[in-house]
Amino acid sequence: xxxxxxxxxxxxxxxxxxxxxxxxxxxxxxxxxxxxxxxxxxxxxxxxxxxxxxxxxxxxxxxxxxxxxxxxxxxxxxxxxxxxxxxxxxxxxxxxxxxxxxxxxxxxxxxxxxxxxxxxxxxxxxxxxxxxxxxxxxxxxxxxxxx
Length: 147
Prior knowledge:
Blueprint: H1 2-38, H2 49-69, H3 76-97, H4 104-146
């Protein structure tokens, strides 16, 4: 039974991280599109960009799962730095293949978006954990009241 809950927890982590990462990327692209439009320039996405963003969200969720499972050995700060660098490598390589950038200035834009999304995902993950914690605490209080 414990193994089944472990698998469910892993699936939940991957799903939440994929959705959070993809949402953050889409939000940043939307802001960039609005800024580009308001500056009088044309902005468009190719047909495969939304799919590539969801794929990258999934690929970036996998190292997050490994970060969750890593125990001992390395300090927490070192694990977070390695996590950030591995995700940045995934985004950089995938961005090259999916033509998210074509020159150094567009690569810098992708890098800035990456770090903003990385911070957003950490903050939203903390928030979702607090929501789950509150639900558990309320359920425990209700259980105690029933006894």
